[in-house]
Amino acid sequence: DQQVKQNSPSLSVQEGRISILNCDYTNSMFDYFLWYKKYPAEGPTFLISISSIKDKNEDGRFTVFLNKSAKHLSLHIVPSQPGDSAVYFCAASAMDGTASKLTFGTGTRLQVTL
Amino acid sequence: DAGITQSPRHKVTETGTPVTLRCHQTENHRYMYWYRQDPGHGLRLIHYSYGVKDTDKGEVSDGYSVSRSKTEDFLLTLESATSSQTSVYFCAIRPGQDNSPLHFGNGTRLTVT
Q1: Class of the A4-95 domain?
Q2: Which 8-state DSSP code applies to residue B102?
Q3: In chain B, what are the domain boundaries?
């Protein structure tokens, strides 16, 4: 049962345009959401996060939006740059008193073209 | 890489052999995790540790065991490797408080023939 879903395996965007990556979740206990970026042969690196008490968090070119009622979050990258080409993973966690175990989506491969 | 070293980086082994992957951190963080990454599945949690000798199972723990005898080292053992365990394995640490982002190592690519 995939609790975090990224339904678009790939996305191609022109340089300078907006990239929108989407993520849906099913577990209503999730209260913290993150986006990771992964280059080939490297580990995932943290990009941006959002708590369930917020609906938007912005960091430079990256903005994450959370719609709790729809159990949906999205990552906006604007303007997109060639260096943004990578696989992006959405992740979620629930406070369970022990460890912040992240549940990941399947990833979306973003290609930013010139 | 947030002070995380995974070894080996690549390994090829035969079905039925035991394999141990090592994760070493330099910053004495309490929480450590092992994930595997497979196409179509994203990253899935195998085991995690919340202190020396304190470990617990993740969602795909069958066929794996872990040990943490020192704060800095978290070992993942495949007791009898199978082809379904061919994957890329990532170790992660949690450097901050609850819900702080995990930091990942660069992974170990394991092939079981």
Answers
A1: mainly beta
A2: P
A3: 26-112
